[in-house]
Each structure stands twice: as structure tokens, then as C-alpha cells.
Amino acid sequence: MRYGILSDTHANIEALEAVLRAFESESIDRFICLGDTVGYGASPNEACNLVRATVAHTVIGNHDAAVAGRMDYSYYYHAARHVLDKHAQILDAPNMAWLRSLPYEHRENDVLFCHGSPISVEDFDYIFARDQAAQCLGIWDRLPQLTLIGHSHLCKAFAINPKYEGSQEVVTLKFQLRDGWKYIISVGSVGQPRDFDPRASYTVFDTESKTFEFKRVDYDIKTAASKILASDLEPNFGTRLFLGI
After folding, report:
1. pLDDT in tens, 96-132
2. CA within 20 to 30 Å of 24's CA: 60, 75, 134, 202, which one?
3. How far apart are CA 20 and CA 188, in angstroms?
4. Model pTM score
5. What angle do CA 131, 132, 135 make, to 5 degrees?
6. Assigned CATH topology for domain 2-242
7. Which one, of 191, 149, 185, 147, lies nearest residue 8 by Cα?
8. pLDDT at 127
9. What gap in Å lies between CA 52 and CA 89, rounded to an integer?
């Protein structure tokens, strides 16, 4: 089985379309989305429609949960609250019903798919550093060999093993899972990268070879940003796309 995994599209239809075109050369058997299809961007309905039409399983992200009325986001800063309110107003009924139905996690083929930390999937905690990944040693028996998450918008991979203290960061774009180790991998963001690389992120995992790979693709940032700048959304949500921050 070859999985195509994507996350954090954030209503950026231009980035999502580019990622799905790039996947065409990857012989993907099943697509999985790790959440946050909405938020920040100017094309929430278009992004939801395309994910719903393409992806086999989608888990809910914090922005999805906020728009769907499944979490309190009153503590978010004003610009983020505004776009979530806006998306809740403009999402059509089928897309809103879809967001309201999404699960917090999905498991198959010894892989856990969720948006944030697997320690408590409903809390949407971040894992982007070694100490955060090491906390997953506390739930070692609950974890499959591979856990794939989004949320941080960063491409990060960590390996944990109860025989060793802490966690190890895997610093390579492509690697094979090793027996005896479990992996927590943050797959980056399709529509709002924050690692100073503005290209859209997507990933591939092959269950037969146990090989994982990070990938990037260019997309029409100018059009995506222009839509935001032409709206009443926070302009920085558009300008930051050019820098990948």
C-alpha cells in the first residue's frame, strides 16, 4: 500500500491542486488528509470539495473543529477568529456536515493518522521538537510503529525507543522505518508552510518497504495570496505565503 498523506491545506486551493498533480506520478493507492482543510485562506469550499472527492480518510484538525462548532476558539487571536467565523458563514451545507462528521483519528496498517499529538488527539497539542516527541514514550504500548500528524506546519520526523532516553530526530527527506523503533512524523503543510520553504508539502509512505518520504512542489502563490489580499481577511495570511512563514 502506498499512502499519499497531506495536511493543513488551509483553504489554499492552488496549493492543493498542485499537490494532487504531483501525486499523479507516485502510484498512490490511498490518500489520507490529516486535517485543517479550512482556516487562513480564501477558498474553503473549493478545498473541502477537492479533499472530499479525492481522499479516502480525513481526520479533523483544530481549524476544522472550530469552524464546525466542535471546539471553543475564543482564545485565538482576532485575525484567526475572524477567518474561522467567515469560513463558518460561507461553507455550504455538505461541507459543514462533512467537517462535523470527521473523526479525531484513523488507524490502519500499523499507522495512526491524527492532527496533533497522539497522547490526546482531541487536545491538538504540537509535536515539533525532540522533547515533545519523547513524551510519547509514555504511551508506547498504545502507539503503532508509525504515527503521522500535521498541525505544526513543519516537516519533522522523530524516532523513539523505550531503551533510550528522549527521542532522536530523523534528518533526511527519505528513510526506512527500523524495527524496534516507533516514529512520530509531522508531514508539513500544503497551504501554509512555516519552515521558510514556500513550496507546498506532501508525503508518501510505502507499507511494503516501510519507506517514508517528504516532498515539495511549487504552486501559484501569487494567485492564492491575491485572493486573500482582495478579501477582508488578515493580509499577512497572504503575504506570508511568499516566504513560507
Report:
1. 999 999 999 999 999 999 999 999 999 999 999 999 9
2. 60
3. 15
4. 0.97
5. 90
6. Purple Acid Phosphatase; chain A, domain 2 (3.60.21)
7. 191
8. 98
9. 19
* Residue 214 and residue 34 in contact, taking contact as beta carbons nearer than 8 Å: no
Confirm if 43 and 92 have CB atoms less than 8 A apart: no
Separation CA 108–CA 173 (nearest Å): 23
Cα 194 from Cα 150, distance rounded (Å): 12
* Contact indicator for 58, 102 with CB cutoff of 8 Å: yes
Residues 6 or more apart in contact with residue 139 via CB below 8 angstroms: 118, 119
Q: How many CB atoms lie within 10 A of CB 222?
A: 12
Which cell numbers in the block locate residue 67? 469552524
Cα distance between residue 95 and residue 47, in whole Å: 10
